[in-house]
Amino acid sequence: MTDCLFCRIVNKEIPSRLVYEDEKVLAFEDIKPQAPAHILIIPKKHLASLKEADENDQNLLGYLLLTARKIAQDKGLAESGFRLVINSGPDSGQEVYHLHVHLLGGRRFGWPPG
After folding, report:
1. Residue among 22, 23, 28 at smallest CA distance from 6
2. CA dihedral angle for residue 57, residue 105, residue 75, residue 87, rounded to 10 degrees
3. Are 26 and 100 in contact (CB under 8 A)?
4. Is 53 a member of any domain?
5. What is the tally of structural domains in the chain?
6. Whole domain around residue 94: which residue ranges?
7. Could you list the active site residues?
8. Is 43 in contact with 25 (CB distance < 8 Å)?
9. Which helix or strand (DSSP H or E) is residue 41 part of?
10. Over its length of 114 residues, how does the chain's per-residue pLDDT go in tens digits?
11. Looking at the whole model, is its pTM more than 0.85?
């Protein structure tokens, strides 16, 4: 996807504040953080949103969550707690149409979230 912002970040065409990378995912700091720690975890495979994922993506979806847990531990967020958010579609607030997990931490969060 040549016009996808996150695909361009994966391809290193646009710089990011990289937090983690392996063969399946890339994680970087959000440019508009909503918490002291706000990291986006994206699959290198383009999926516009969770709505487009299917049974073939089951392992990748689980891998995204396990990667979020690892990053939360590495950043010292696991002990006090962290929040994971996946927006899917316009009413959810999704702005970039490449599946991504928001990892938020470093402060207390309220419920309901918004």
Report:
1. 28
2. 20
3. no
4. yes
5. 1
6. 5-105
7. 100
8. yes
9. strand 37-43
10. 568 999 999 999 999 999 999 999 999 999 999 999 999 999 999 999 999 999 999 999 999 999 999 999 999 999 999 999 999 999 999 999 999 999 999 999 999 986
11. yes
